[in-house]
Amino acid sequence: MVAVKVRRNKRWLKVANLMFGLIGLSIVLGGEFAVASRFGLILAKVNGYVIDERIFENELKKEHKELLWTSLSPNVLHRVNLLDVLNKLIDKRLIIEEAINLGLDKDPVFLRNFRLFEINQLILRLRKEVVLDKISVSDAEIRAYFKKFYCKDGKFDEKKFKHVKRWIKRKLEKLKEKDLSDKFFAFLRKRARIWIDKKLVDECGVESSFSVLKDKIIARANGKPILAQDFIEDLKIVLNNRKLQKIKDKEKKREYVKKIKKMVLTRLITHELIVQEALKRKSRYLEDSNLLDILTQRKEQLLINLFKIRYIYPLARPSKKELREYYRTHKDKFRTPSKVCFSEVYFAKRKEAENFLNKLKQGASFEFLAKRVAQGSAVERDYIWVYTSKFSERLKKVLESLAVGSVSGVIADDVGYKVIKLKARKKGKVVEFSEVENMLKKIVGKQKFKKILSEYIKRLRKHADIKIYKKNLEKLKQKYWSKAA
User: Which residues on adjacent β-strands are paired with residue 467?
Assistant: First the structure.
């Protein structure tokens, strides 16, 4: 009995020593127990929510799409502020939590949009499983296709075969995809219970009113209703083409419309059956962590968007007074393009252009030198006015920086090198308020939106429990630099 008790005490002591060791380790690492997750380093915590390396990298790729992780370069990394990216992630998390607190995750608009996205993702998985994963094109099949359609004289041209092999493979893959899809659709329809209101199908046309047909059921697939208004909507899209207008014979037109109606209704029924089949396999598809990540990211983005629409945009609508005030203080932004008159001299080499400038600095006349030094390349405009909007952004900035009568530095372009003298300038006229009011609404509204959202996030940050692991962020930075090296 004593021996058993001693063994138990030893086991308890081992566990206790291990726990104390972990506690000591957490103190050394800064008082936080978890500094890494199964998805890499933990970079921040927001009210207990963990932002780890994987979440951070996904956001980094969204923010900086030019980042290709297989070929990181120091030039790209110099433009990326990792702390800024992390703070944006924190702000997003705070908005998501606020949206949930406000009940937006139960809002009908959010639920409908998320369900549509989820169904589309499930359909993509279903297509991959029953069609794409089953497509296989052998070299023998490619050669047989080549012999049938390319070897008319019976000779097999190996060089020509190599040239068209990839195209033939894609062609055969597309044919197999269509065949497998058609067979799967036929299988779904064969086992389905389908009911169609043929009388309502005949009554429906492009002139049919949505309000009259509202909630009327035109067909059922395994008991699930297909609404007449959806049928009319799709029918109008398909029939809105020139082919129908070209058919003059009434009987032929009637037969054509009947054929299109059948095609549209078949599509709607098939789509409903595909949705039902995808939903049957939902639990299995959701075992894929990649799909869960995609759904989670979409859910979060939908919540952020809905929060902005419901709680920020209404406050960001600018008043007439705000529009007029912005217009009054930024009139230069609402001018017609300026006009300029200038002379320019072209040179084949930069050295020649620099010598030309040096002589001007010594007191020589621009016009005199232009005729002698530039060997006839001087362009005299004789007060022909040119809108600055016609020029490249670079040249526009040069002209705007010049005072009338002054000369530019050396300007490189596609032709060679040039030096410009500004002879005259006419400022554009200020456009009337009424003509730019819609533009002002966008400009002022955007500024106001940013300001209100920023203030809202500041209030959320004030009451949030946020922890940033700067040492881990530095480690991640070093990791990226080592990849780029």
Answer: 45
* Tokens, residue 206: 């492009």
Q: For residue 472, which of 30, 27, 35 has the smallest C-alpha distance? A: 35
Q: Would the pTM count as exceeding 0.90?
A: no
Angle 433-462/320-329 helices, nearest 10 degrees?
A: 110
Query: For domain 336-426, which architecture applies?
Result: Roll (3.10)
Structure tokens at 231: 């049928």
Reference 186, options 274, 106, 122; nearest CA is 274
Determine the 3-state secondary structure of 301 from DSSP.
helix
Cα–Cα distance measured from residue 428 to residue 354, given in angstroms and rounded to the nearest whole number: 33
Smallest CA-to-CA distance from 388 within 349, 429, 425 is with 425
3-state secondary structure of 192: coil
How far apart CA 302 and CA 96 sit, in angstroms, is 9
Contacts of residue 86, defined as CB under 8 A and 6 or more positions apart, other chains included, come to 43, 44, 51, 56, 468, 473
More confident residue, 71 or 325: 325
Q: Using the structure block, give the residue that is written with the tokens 């049957």.
A: 280
Give me the residue spans of the domains in the chain. Answer: 2-104, 132-285, 336-426
In this structure, of 244-253, 332-341, 344-353, 441-450, the range with the lowest mean pLDDT score is 244-253
Instruction: Give 474-481 contacts, CB < 8 A, sequence gap 24+.
Output: 475/41, 476/41, 476/43, 476/53, 476/56, 476/82, 477/82, 480/72, 480/77, 481/74, 481/77
| Average pLDDT of the chain, as a whole number | 85
